[in-house]
Write the structure tokens for this entry.
Amino acid sequence: MSDIEEMVEQAKKPGKFNIIDAIRDRAYPRDEIEVFLDEDVAFRASELDDAISSISKSLDDKKDLNKKEIDAILARRDEIIDNKQKLIEEMGGARYIFHITGIAEGKRQDLYDKAIQRFPIKHDSNRHPFTGELERTEIEDPNRDKFFTSLLWQAYISKIVSPDGEEQDSITFEDAIELRRSLPVAATARITEAIEKMRAATALFMMSVNEDFLAKS
């Protein structure tokens, strides 16, 4: 066999890889959450939403309106929609994009273990009124829950983009605490929801894919 033929045969052989590297480098799900920091404008926009809904409801409820009355109501609704659009444009100056990136389940478990280490689980013991057996009930710890949630925010929030396009890559644990303290309630709820949804949806998808694969193999 010539040197060239030997090189070709070597090239055809399967390459080597490291499964741990593949696990670490795999793609995780991503999501983007819009956060508006101008709560005053957001409140006024929500009031306009209520007004638009009220006008639409009045059109559905009143079936005996003539064309002139309907046109007047629609004109009023269009005016409110225009005002809402102006408010949204005004809010653009306070629009931040939070990039959420999934993490490995093992890393999430590590964070939970860290929370348990910081705030150990305690139990309350009581005797069952009928059997007399001693029962242990875990005592909830709000401080541990807050600590764990802040750890999750730090792990999942991979980037924040300002209205000017400037970027902050990752956040510190202290950042996570302050964000959860100071962001508008709606924004906090949306970020937490996105984190939990990302974990649950990915797990369900991977389970269904694995079940389908195993069923056919």
User: Anything to note?
Assistant: The two ends are 39 Å apart (CA to CA). The longest helix spans residues 185-216. The chain has eight helices and six strands. Confidence is low (pLDDT under 50) at residues 213-217.
